[in-house]
Each structure stands twice: as C-alpha cells, then as structure tokens.
Amino acid sequence: MSMQTKFLLDESQMPRFWYNIQADLPKPAPAVLHPGTLQPVGPDDLAPLFPMTLIQQEVSLEREIEIPEPVRDVFRLWRPSPLMRAHRLEKALGTPAKIYYKYEGVSPAGSHKPNTAVPQAFYNKEAGVKRLVTETGAGQWGTSLAFAGSLYGLQVEVYQVRVSYDQKPYRRAVMETYGARCVASPSNETVYGRSVLSKNPNHPGSLGIAISEAVELAVQRDDTKYALGSVLNHVLLHQTIVGQEAMEQMKMADAWPDVVIGCAGGGSNFAGISFPFIGHALRGGEKSRIVAAEPAACPSLTRGKYAYDFGDTGHMTPLSKMHTLGSSFTPPGFHAGGLRYHGMAPLVSHCKELGLLEAVAFNQVECFEAGVLFARNEGIVPAPESNHAVRAAIVEALRCKREGKAENILFCLSGHGHFDMASYQKFFAGELSDESYDDKELAMALAGLPSVAESA
Ligand SMILES: *Cc1c(COP(=O)(O)O)cnc(C)c1O
C-alpha cells in the first residue's frame, strides 16, 4: 500500500488561466444594482473603485481568463501549492475514507489571499494607480495586499477592525514591514468613521464599517483605488487556481473527490477549491458533493436571507443579491475573524440557490478541537478559519466510517494559524465558549434590508 503523502506539481504545470464559473452556470447570476436607481450597475459606476481590467473580469462570461505572465512569475514564490494526504488523521479517526488537503498556508502571507492580492495590485499598477485602500479584519487580507503592494511600489493603506488592531499587534507589524500604513477602524480619517465614533467612541469596529471607510477614501482621489479580498466575482475567479491545481493533483493521486470542502467567510477560498469541480460536473464530468463550512455565530449561508443587500454598513456599495444577515448586523467576537462578514459571495449564494452546493455551520469550540487533532497528527496548526473546513472533513470521514465507505475527501486548508496562537491559548485555558448571535439583532438587521422589487 502506498503511503505517498505529497502530490506536487512543478512550476511549468501551474495553471495559465483562471476558471470563470459564469460561463457554465445554467442560469446567470442576478445583476448588481445601483443603490439609487436600482438599475444594473455599469462599468462606469465601478470605475472610481477598480481598474477596468478587474471590472471586465467581474462581468466576464468567458470560461478561461489568462493569468498575466508577470503574475505567474510572482506566484512561483509559492505556487503550485502542495496537495497532501492526511494519512495520520485518517488513522486517528479510524476511517476508511481518504482525506486530502490543499495547503494554501505556504504563501508569504500564510493564506490563500495573495492569490488575488497579487493580480489586483498588478492590474492597478498597470492602470497607473498609486495608492490602494482596503479593510482587514483579522489582518490576513491586509497582510496579503501589503505584500503585493510592496512588489509593485504601490502605497497601501489598511483600515483594520479596531478589536483586531488592538488584539493582533504582530499582524500589524507584518503589514508595516511590507510598508503599509494601518489605521484602526472606525477612525477619525473619514466622514463615516467620525459619524460612527460620535455615537460610540469605543466602537469595536466591523468589516462592514471598515469597508465603508476604505470606499469613501478611494472615491475621493483619482490616484487611489479600493481592493477587496473576498466576495466579488473577480476575487473568486483569481482563487480558482487553487481548485485547478488540486484537480491535477487528485488525478496524480488517482482519487477523484467524492466531497470537496472549504470554509466560507466571504466565500473566496471555498469558491477557489470548489468552482473548478462544480464546472467540471456542469460540463458533464464526474460529480462531487460540494460543502461550505461556516461559523454558527455568523451563518449567512445556512441562516441568512437570499436578498439584495449592501456590501458595507455605511451603504456606499452597490446592491448584490446574496445570502445575508443584514448589513447592519454585527457578528459576535468569535475567534475566526476572517469569517465575520454579514454577506456571502453572490456567486456562491447563486450556486447554493441552484442546488450546486451544500452548507453546514459549526461552533468555534468544536472547530478548535478539530484543529488541535489535525495539528497533532499532520503537524500544521490551522488558522481558526480553516478549522471549520477541518471540522467538516472530520464529520464526513466519520460518516464514511459509519457507512463503511472509502470515499475521497478533499478540503482546502486555507492558511496556518501562527498569528492566531492567542486564540489557541484561550481554547486550552477553557476560555472559549460558543458565541451565538443575538436573534433580535438578526431579525432587526434582516427587517432593514433594502426593498428591491424582484423582477427576475
Ligand atoms: C480570510 C480568510 C478566510 C475567509 O475568507 P474567504 O473569502 O471566505 O476565503 C479563510 N481562511 C483564511 C486562512 C483566511 O485568511
């Protein structure tokens, strides 16, 4: 019996194209609407925020979009990333299932996020942009954009959610090492930030607020654009390099996945690992079950409403149809900060509506238990976000054990947890509890959804 553990591609086998699922969907995703006119937004509406190449990618229906050669050159620093077989975890679980994971923690930032930060910085540089403004929660996205900005000589400003800014000083130090400037959000530097602070000077901040601040700054200056690390179609597109590589590596392992799993916050690593497999099935190929794992404390896919909503709390963004908890919803402060967003990527939401994927929600304690079991058998300490995918893979492996099935399980290990060790310490000290959201607040946030007459 083979104990082969690593399935590696060489640089020459790195994908040359991103996969655009919009080409294969049986029904197109609902249009993004202008919040004033409620008409579909055009490229000109988005031009203050993004360079035209990214806007074109956002709406493209072409199946394959070429990855620029200079971007592939940067990717060579860590791509293709390894696919691993979790032999020891399988043994510990006593499962007949084979568990594979695609490891994205090998990037300079320690997660999948540079897969989109690098092309976004590249296209902005090409368009003559000098400064990029963005938001970050736990700090992974800010770190990734700071890294990418440093490669292209772009000034990067990161509005970091106040609680994370205070609790994760090392993330900030990494961003500053790459030359970025970090500002705690809500801040005094924007009209919106000042309005939030005037109501609550100790506001802990949220991703939705930080997005509003970054967008406000981006629209003010011609040399400044905005960058988003998840949710948008072009971000999901850039992450499909993950699933395309994994597909080749699963072929090397002679193990087509019966189940494909990703954790889902805004939906980008989940789409990255799963969209190429969904597309393969839509074009008549083998079908896999596709499972999104989200936090029970911020359950947009499993408990949210599929409706038009704003992407931010200050209501400056266009309206997208997505699974949402309401843009005014502030998720409780659980430890997978990268998953604390009120909405889900519109393309992931649309696929869920089409029945192309399933969603499950887990509490944080059971996710840390899964992460610790994984670390003690496979050696890698997963990011708290990734622990949701680990948990889902373990649940599937135990189902296989009960059913006596030797299925192939593939999941995306989206990042390592080296900057999140304070939350592991809390877990070991028994100080982590299962945070749940406030039902009343959720009901209020959902009641406040913008009203959009549904024509489609
Ligand atoms: C940001 C982040 C996530 C959540 O973002 P998605 O867009 O849902 O992928 C998950 N895992 C890690 C390690 C992250 O940094």
Write the layout of secondary structure elements.
Elements: E1 6-7, E2 17-19, H1 43-46, H2 52-59, E3 64-66, H3 69-75, E4 83-85, H4 87-93, E5 98-103, H5 114-126, E6 131-136, H6 140-152, E7 155-161, H7 162-167, H8 169-177, E8 181-185, H9 191-199, H10 207-220, E9 224-226, H11 233-252, E10 259-263, H12 268-282, E11 289-295, H13 300-303, E12 305-310, E13 319-324, H14 346-353, E14 358-362, H15 364-378, H16 386-403, E15 408-413, H17 421-428, H18 439-447
Parallel strand pairs: 5-15, 6-7, 6-9, 7-8, 10-11, 10-15, 11-14
Antiparallel strand pairs: 1-4, 2-3, 4-5, 12-13
Pyridoxal-5'-phosphate (PLP) binds near residues 265, 266, 268, 339 and 415.
Q: Give the CATH architecture of the domain at 6-14 and 67-110 and 233-447.
A: 3-Layer(aba) Sandwich
Low-confidence stretches are none
The biggest sheet, with number of strands, parallel, antiparallel or mixed sense and barrel status, is: 7 strands, mixed
**Percent helix:** 40-55%
Structural class: alpha/beta
What can you see in these coordinates?
The protein is an alpha/beta fold and 456 residues long. The protein has a domain at 6-14 and 67-110 and 233-447: Rossmann fold, CATH 3.40.50.1100. 41% of the residues lie in helices and 16% in strands. The chain is built from 18 helices and 15 strands. The strands form 4 sheets. Strands 1-4-5-15-10-11-14 form a 7-stranded mixed beta sheet, with helices on both faces. It is globular. It starts with 5 loop residues before the first strand and ends in a 9-residue tail after the last helix. 57% of the residues are buried. The mean pLDDT is 95. The chain binds pyridoxal-5'-phosphate (PLP). Residues 111, 113, 140-141, 230, 263-270, 338-339, 383, 385-386, 414-415 line the site of pyridoxal-5'-phosphate (PLP). Pyridoxal-5'-phosphate binds at residues 111, 113, 140-141, 230, 263-270, 338-339, 383, 385-386, 414-415.
